[in-house]
């Protein structure tokens, strides 16, 4: 049976590199390429039996780890490997805490990326050599907020992302092609699930999921 692997990265050149690694790991794979969280959600809905997501942390529609947390909450049976420009151990630790099945640095050579993909498809958790021991000694991140974030529906997650971008209800309703009343209902549900009272608190909460400046590299998340 053909395996479906979704490559989620907003840099075309790196998507091409990942696709090459996928082709080496699984020669007959069906590779689906997306460049935003919105497109990723659509791809997963269109491919409910997908086998793996290769996920860039910093893509349009994502706030750091929020895309990872959301995908793991909505699709717990679908493994996600974070592919990141950061090689900060704290980023790797948090990625694993939030449910990633692997972490591949963008600087890794093609054979290493291929090895990571193969390992996760076989059911393992893959990390760069020597990293597992180091991050085991690090303190885990509290997961209370990530669990709340994971409980949002796909539409609620989209609305939260738009709130974080500063869009008004009217703009969100237009973009999602629904009524303002529907957006107000979504926002009320988002506030309740996240345990916040207003937009400002919701935006501050989602910003907890951002990568710290010190954790980001010049090549992006």
Automatic annotation (TrEMBL):
<dbReference type="InterPro" id="IPR001789">
    <property type="entry name" value="Sig_transdc_resp-reg_receiver"/>
</dbReference>
<dbReference type="Pfam" id="PF00196">
    <property type="entry name" value="GerE"/>
</dbReference>
<dbReference type="InterPro" id="IPR051015">
    <property type="entry name" value="EvgA-like"/>
</dbReference>
<dbReference type="InterPro" id="IPR058245">
    <property type="entry name" value="NreC/VraR/RcsB-like_REC"/>
</dbReference>
<dbReference type="GO" id="GO:0006355">
    <property type="term" value="P:regulation of DNA-templated transcription"/>
</dbReference>
<keyword id="KW-0597">Phosphoprotein</keyword>
<dbReference type="InterPro" id="IPR000792">
    <property type="entry name" value="Tscrpt_reg_LuxR_C"/>
</dbReference>
<feature type="domain" description="Response regulatory">
    <location>
        <begin position="4"/>
        <end position="121"/>
    </location>
</feature>
<dbReference type="GO" id="GO:0003677">
    <property type="term" value="F:DNA binding"/>
</dbReference>
<dbReference type="InterPro" id="IPR016032">
    <property type="entry name" value="Sig_transdc_resp-reg_C-effctor"/>
</dbReference>
<keyword id="KW-0238">DNA-binding</keyword>
<dbReference type="Pfam" id="PF00072">
    <property type="entry name" value="Response_reg"/>
</dbReference>
<dbReference type="InterPro" id="IPR011006">
    <property type="entry name" value="CheY-like_superfamily"/>
</dbReference>
<dbReference type="GO" id="GO:0000160">
    <property type="term" value="P:phosphorelay signal transduction system"/>
</dbReference>
<protein>
    <submittedName>
        <fullName>Transcriptional regulatory protein DegU</fullName>
    </submittedName>
</protein>
<feature type="domain" description="HTH luxR-type">
    <location>
        <begin position="145"/>
        <end position="210"/>
    </location>
</feature>
<feature type="modified residue" description="4-aspartylphosphate">
    <location>
        <position position="56"/>
    </location>
</feature>
């Amino acid at each position: 049976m053909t395996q479906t692997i979704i490559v989620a990265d907003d840099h075309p050149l790196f998507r091409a590199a990942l696709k090459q690694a996928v082709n080496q790991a699984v020669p007959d794979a069906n590779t689906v390429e997306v460049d935003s969280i919105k497109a990723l959600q659509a791809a997963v809905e269109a491919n409910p039996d997908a086998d793996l997501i290769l996920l860039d942390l910093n893509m349009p529609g994502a706030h750091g780890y929020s895309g990872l947390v959301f995908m793991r909450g909505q699709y717990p049976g679908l493994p996600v490997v974070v592919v990141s420009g950061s090689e900060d151990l704290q980023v790797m630790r948090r990625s694993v805490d939030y449910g990633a099945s692997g972490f591949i640095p963008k600087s890794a050579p093609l054979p290493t990326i291929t090895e990571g993909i193969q390992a996760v498809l076989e059911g393992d958790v893959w990390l760069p050599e020597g990293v597992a021991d180091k991050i085991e000694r690090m303190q885990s991140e509290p997961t209370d907020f990530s669990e709340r974030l994971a409980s949002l529906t796909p539409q609620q997650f989209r609305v939260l992302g738009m709130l974080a971008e500063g869009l008004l209800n009217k703009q969100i309703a237009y973009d999602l092609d629904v009524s303002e009343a529907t957006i107000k209902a979504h926002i009320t549900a988002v506030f309740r699930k996240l345990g916040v009272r207003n937009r400002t608190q919701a935006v501050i909460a989602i910003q907890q999921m951002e990568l710290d400046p010190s954790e980001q590299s010049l090549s992006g998340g």
